[in-house]
Structure formats: structure tokens, C-alpha cells
Amino acid sequence: MQDLAGQAVSLAFSVGACLGGAWWTLRHWSRARHLQDTPTSKIRSAAQGYVELYGVLKALPEAQVQAPLSGKLCLWWRYRIEELRSTQSGRKHWRLLESGSSEAWLRLDDGTGECLIDPRGAEVRPMVRERWQGSQRHPRGPAARGLLAWLSAGKRYRYVEERLHAGQPLYAIGEFRTLGGAHQGFDAVAAQKALIREWKEDFSALLARFDRDGDGRLSESEWALVRLAAQLEAEQRYREACARPALNLMAKPGESRPFILANAGEDEIIRGIYWQAAAGVVLCFGGALATAWLLGIRHF
């Protein structure tokens, strides 16, 4: 009976490994295909929707971001603090205490225009990654170098900090949209109806403006004036929006498509994703072999 229960548990693990490996492979294969099938666009001429951009990070003049562990100025950061713990058997392991990442917007410049990027929900792959140790839960200053780093080795806490800095290249793929400027299409009927709904929220003001005979209601001729005024104001708002500089934005796609920000190039990212997919193939194949072997033992 115990052998049968053990075989059942082993079978469950092997089937899970096979299915998990297959899911992992398909997921990463699909991610790689999304990157390959999306051509690199220029910001000035990028279509609205899912796009791929490549440029240089620039600092936002009104924002000054400071990394929480090293205190260094940067554009974006992510950190992790771990503590060295000992088990009852005397084995030591690192346990995560806290982690976090910046939500500061990024500015990408590709020579044809600029795009603001909301990094929330993105898979960020920075070039700069520092790791050091210390005796304080929160370090005071940047990572130690040379002799100081050797003296701090073996301390109780370990810190990992990743950062994006101005001047670094950035590959970005996500949902792109443009606000303002001539990029916004104009639906005159929809804009007119939206403006009338806005005016109806304060119906007393609407009456005061268009109730010419003062009977407390709007006649058909007065509603015609409302519609005409709404049409003219909607057109004026559109002209004002077109006169304002266009604002390009990138954020997480609404669908299950990759949102990646990386200092590496597209080819390097895709190569890494394919290696991850290959690991899933190995896991799936190993799980399938183990399942076949366990079923063979049980059969005989």
C-alpha cells in the first residue's frame, strides 16, 4: 500500500513537471514571437497600439529619483534586502526581508521624438546591478569596494540594487498612444453628444443658458440651439487640443502581451527567452519520461 501511495505521489510530480514544462515553453515561445513580429518604430511616426521602440533614456527635468539603498541618483530602481538565517540543523540560507521598485516615469528619446513610459507592470532588465553585504538592515551609502567589501563579507544582511540611468540605451515594447496634437481623431457626433451629457449634469445652468421663453423646459427649437452650441464648442476644443504639443505615452498592454524595458538589444532578449523556453522543453521531456517509466513499473 505504501509503495502504491509513493508511486501515486511520484506520478503526480512527473505529470506536473511535464505539463508545467509544456506551459513554460509555450509561454516563452509566444513572448519571443511577439518581439520578433513587432518591428521597431520611430516615435514620430509610430502607430497607435502595440509598438517596439529603441532609444536613449533622458532625465525628466522636474523629477529627481534617488535609489533607496545606495543613495545614488538614477531614473529608476529596484531593490531587495535579504537576511542570513540558520535552520535548526545548522544550515544557513538567505531569507527575503523586503523588496520594492520605483514607479517613476521614464523618458525615451530616439532622435525623432520623445515618449514617456509608465514602468508599472513592466519586466525591467537593467544594465546596472549591485550586490553587497552589511550588518545593518538598511545600508548607509553605496556598496563597499576593495578592502571594505572584504571586511563586510559574511555580514548578516545582503543587498541587491538595480538601476536605470540617463544616457543608457533602452529597448521598450508595450502599448503606445499619443495624446493631443493632430494624432487624435475627431468624431463630431460623439463629441457633441458627450458635451451635451456633460451640460445635462447641471440642468439648471443648461436652462439658464438656453431656455429663451422662461417656461422651465427646453422646447424643440431650444434643443436645436443646444445641439448647435455643443457642436461648435466640441470643434473648438478639438482645435485647441490639436494646437497643444503631442504627448507620447507607453504603458502595460491590456492584453497578455509582453511589456519589456531593457538596456539590452532585441536579439539578446529574444535569445534569452528562447533559452528559457528550451529549459521548459527539458522539464517537459523529463516529466514525460518519468511518467512513462512510472506507468511501466505499475503496469508490470
Task: Tell me what you see in this structure.
The structure is a single chain. By secondary structure, the chain is α+β, with helices and mostly antiparallel strands. Helices cover 41% and strands 27% of the residues. It has two domains: 2-180 and 246-299, no CATH class; 182-243, no CATH class. The chain has helices at residues 2-37, 146-152, 188-200, 203-210, 220-243, 266-299; strands spanning 49-58, 65-66, 73-74, 76-86, 92-101, 106-109, 114-117, 123-125, 128-134, 157-164, 169-179, 247-251, 260-262. Helix 1 runs antiparallel to helix 6. The two termini are 16 Å apart.
Keywords:
300 residues; 2 domains; five-stranded mixed β-barrel; four-stranded antiparallel beta sheet; 13 strands; elongated
Mean pLDDT metric: 81
List the secondary-structure elements in sequence, H or E. Answer: HEEEEEEEEEHEEHHHEEH
Termini separation comes to 16 Å
Query: Mind telling me the C-alpha Rg?
Result: 29 Å
Overall, the morphology is elongated
Strand order of the largest sheet: 1-6-7-12-11
Query: What is the count of DSSP helices, taking H or I runs of 4+ residues?
Result: 6
The parts where pLDDT drops under 50 for at least 5 residues are none
Our estimate of the beta-strand percent is: 25-35%
Number of DSSP strand runs: 13
Class per helix and strand makeup: alpha+beta
Largest sheet: 5 strands, mixed, barrel
Quaternary class: single chain
What is the number of domains? 2
**What portion of residues is helical?**
40-55%
